[in-house]
Amino acid sequence: MVQLLGYHKETPSQTAGPYIHIGLVPNALGNEGIFPEDLGRSPIRAGAKGQPITITGRVIDGAGMVLRDALFETWQADAQGIYPANDPRGAADPNVTGWARVIADFETGIWRLDTIKPGRVPYPDGRLMAPHISVWLVARGINLGLQTRIYFDDEGEANAECPVLMRIEHRERVATLEARKKDANTYEFDFRLQGVDETVFFDI
Amino acid sequence: MTISTPFTPGPLHFRDRAWHPSAFTPAYKTSVTRAPFRPLVALGSTLSEESGPAFGHSMIGDLDNNLILNFTGQAAIGERMIMHGRVLDENGRGVPGVLVEIWQANAAGRYRHKRDGYGAPLDPNFAGCGRALTGSDGAYEFLTIRPGAYPWPNDVNSWRPMHIHVSVFGSGFGQRLITQMYFEGDPLIARCPIVNTVNKEEAVRALVAPLDMNRAIPMDCLAWKFDIVLRGRRQSFFENRREGM
Ligand SMILES: [Fe+3]
């Protein structure tokens, strides 16, 4: 016999279901009067340093249907590559909170994120990762939140040497993580949950 | 937002994915077209997942964790109950200052949501939404109404057991978790296709809150205890990885 390790087990996940808006974005749903405003409406405040960008897109299932009940959260560094909280390296731009809650539109399923382009953050071994926004995506039918990242297709050099992107064996799949530049400050990004162009999801 | 959580450096414990539900669980029909088919790309945590948003007590209102009163100020109808517990990590330590958000149906099993078409009545004084920050020992508490069971379109006659949806943050974005709390003794638990996405009986048990008579308030309300465990962090002197090591 041996000693017991004694670790607790993580609480098992359950789907967020179709009514997640009640709990996480009640004002956006129309249930006003409980909280003054929904949390995570923007990852930046006026005066945030860096390039302002807008990303829009959809979440699409394996049958090609656009989800209208998806919600995701984003977490990103400031323009210098410092995270706004729980980063041991020091203080970030005070006008970057870094975290946002984004919902698919109730009618069209289109989502939109207005933020600044994040700086590069070091990988554990010191090499720099390419600019990216971390994403945690939930919806009805998703049993455990999906973890992925939004990179940018105009960061070719940084993407080519990003230690995370380099881990993707099937190279054609890297493009599923790159937001496509539309004009100077606008990008498009679709999450594809299943199928030929399935987005890369990570085991983190 | 202000930083209220002391940062504990260290990579996250690896996630036991056999303990969590699989993505593709055909008995829960909606998962069939929403489950990724390709294998997840193994990454492990980086600073992007080891850091995460922090929330301060200043943003929490007095009634935020009181779902009986927080919608209109008039009391909601139903069986009054306390939901309480601690947020711990896998190392067994209480996690202070983290945000716990809950949502639920009312006593009749009806959600205040434009997509809920169930014929049970809305309660004009119940929104079914609350939030709390954990205290220094990781403890949290809500006062609410015990939610009703409700039917849903999966099989011809599928009913959800009574449940409260729970969303939890840790100090790292990679700890983010959503789950559901069930109630001890509910015969619908074993029949629920969503509960049964969890493969191991022991794991299902971690989602079922026991009745806690020590926290019940006589002549007022019952109490149910629900501890929540987040991924832990590894801590080792040898974890200070450098380039080339
Ligand atoms: Fe529910």
Briefly summarize what is shown.
The complex is a heterodimer of chains A (about 200) and B (about 240). Chain A is built from three helices and eleven strands, in the order ααβββββββαββββ.
List the helices and strands and how they pair.
The complex is a heterodimer of chains A (204) and B (245).
Chain A: H1 20-24, H2 26-29, E1 52-57, E2 59-60, E3 71-75, E4 99-103, E5 111-116, E6 133-138, E7 146-152, H3 156-160, E8 178-183, E9 186-188, E10 191-192, E11 202-203
Chain B: E1 41-42, H1 47-50, E2 80-89, E3 99-103, E4 129-133, E5 139-145, E6 150-152, E7 158-160, E8 163-168, E9 177-183, H2 201-205, E10 208-209, E11 222-225, E12 228-230
Parallel strand pairs in B: 2-11, 2-12, 9-10
Antiparallel strand pairs in B: 2-5, 3-4, 3-8, 6-7, 8-9
Describe the structure.
- The complex is a heterodimer of chains A (204) and B (245).
- Helix content of chain A is 7%, strand content 25%.
- An eight-stranded mixed sheet of chain A has the order 4-3-6-7-8-9-1-5.
- The two termini of chain A are 32 Å apart.
- In chain A, a hairpin with a 7-residue loop joins strand 6 and strand 7.
- Chain A is mainly β and 204 residues long.
- The longest helix of chain A is centred in the N-terminal third of the chain and has 5 residues.
- Chain B is mainly beta and 245 residues long.
- Helices cover 4% and strands 23% of the residues of chain B.
- In chain B, the strands form three sheets. Chain B has a five-stranded mixed sheet with strand order 4-3-8-9-10, with no helix packed on it. In chain B, strands 2, 5, 11 and 12 form a four-stranded mixed sheet that branches. Chain B has a two-stranded antiparallel ribbon with strand order 6-7.
- The N terminus of chain B is likely disordered.
- Classes of the chains: A mainly beta (204), B mainly beta (245).
